[in-house]
Amino acid sequence: MARVPELEPAQMTAEQRRVHDAIVAGPRGRVEGPLRVWLQSPGFADRAQALGAFCRFGGTLPPQVSELAILVTAAFWRAAYEWYAHAPLALRAGIDPQVVEAIRTGRPPQLSREDQAATHRLARELTETHRVSDDTYRRAVAALGVPAVVELVGLIGYYSLVAMTINAFEVPLSPGASDPFA
Question: How many separate domains does the chain show?
Answer without folding.
Answer: 2
